[in-house]
Amino acid sequence: MFHILVAEDDKNMRELLKAMLKANGYRPYTAANGLEALSVIDTNHIDLILTDIMMPEMDGYELTRRLRENNYEMPILMITAKQLPEDKRRGFLVGTDDYITKPIDEEEMLLRIKALLRRAKIVYDHRLTVGSVILDYDSLTVTRGTEAVTLPPREFYLMYKLLSCPGKIFTRMQLMDEIWGMDSESTDSTVDVHIHRLRKKFGDYPEFSIETVRGLGYRAVRNL
């Protein structure tokens, strides 16, 4: 069972979120502000934090900043009534993973929580399983049955990124920034070259495929 901390100063909203999470199989913890949230985290294992931004004592921005500075890596989903780009930018800069705006749609919230927990498990395990294919981040190895292929780092990171978020379209620039770095002198055609190499090596694997989305970029599709 996943443990989720709700940091929200409004008592009615806090209890509503607690009930939603409990009804969907999660174990909820609650806090009325960032300071209380830190105290809960000190004494309990927390898998994900659902935090309001505007709270007394310590707001969601400061809570997130302190956790990231102290190397807490659990996903953080911010709840906000603010929809201005600069507000979201500030949240991402201090380390939040995603946003959901008020009034909260329960189905959307649960889908975002599931996605964040899935990605967090991938990061913690450093292993990604797609059918009978296993990608081991630490060894840069792709294993299928008795066959194991060790890839050059950037080929592996590119494949791992795409398969971690199946169906999501990544532009060439997004992939360049994340895998090669914003300061890289390589051009975005480098991504095309690496995609070609991956298709050549794994094109006969039925478990997944890497598709070109014309005019946009690439996405991985899981076929099982």
From TrEMBL:
Keyword Transcription on entry = yes
SUPFAM superfamilies, per this entry?
A: CheY-like (SSF52172)
Q: What molecular functions are annotated in GO for this chain? A: phosphorelay response regulator activity; transcription cis-regulatory region binding
UniProt-listed Pfam families: Response_reg, Trans_reg_C
Q: Which UniProt keywords apply?
A: Activator, Cytoplasm, DNA-binding, Phosphoprotein, Transcription, Transcription regulation, Two-component regulatory system, Virulence
Provide GO CC annotations from the record.
cytosol; protein-DNA complex
Biological process annotations from GO: regulation of DNA-templated transcription
Q: Where in the cell is it found?
A: Cytoplasm
Cite the OmpR/PhoB-type domain residue spans from the record: 125-222
Which Gene3D superfamilies does the annotation name? 3.40.50.2300, Winged helix-like DNA-binding domain superfamily/Winged helix DNA-binding domain (1.10.10.10)
DNA-binding feature ranges = 125-222
Which coarse location class describes where this protein primarily resides?
A: cytoplasm
List, alphabetically, the PROSITE patterns matched.
Answer: OMPR_PHOB, RESPONSE_REGULATORY
Summarize the protein's role: Member of the two-component regulatory system HssS/HssR involved in intracellular heme homeostasis and tempering of staphylococcal virulence. Phosphorylated HssR binds to a direct repeat sequence within hrtAB promoter and activates the expression of hrtAB, an efflux pump, in response to extracellular heme, hemin, hemoglobin or blood.
Task: Tell me the protein's name.
Answer: Heme response regulator HssR
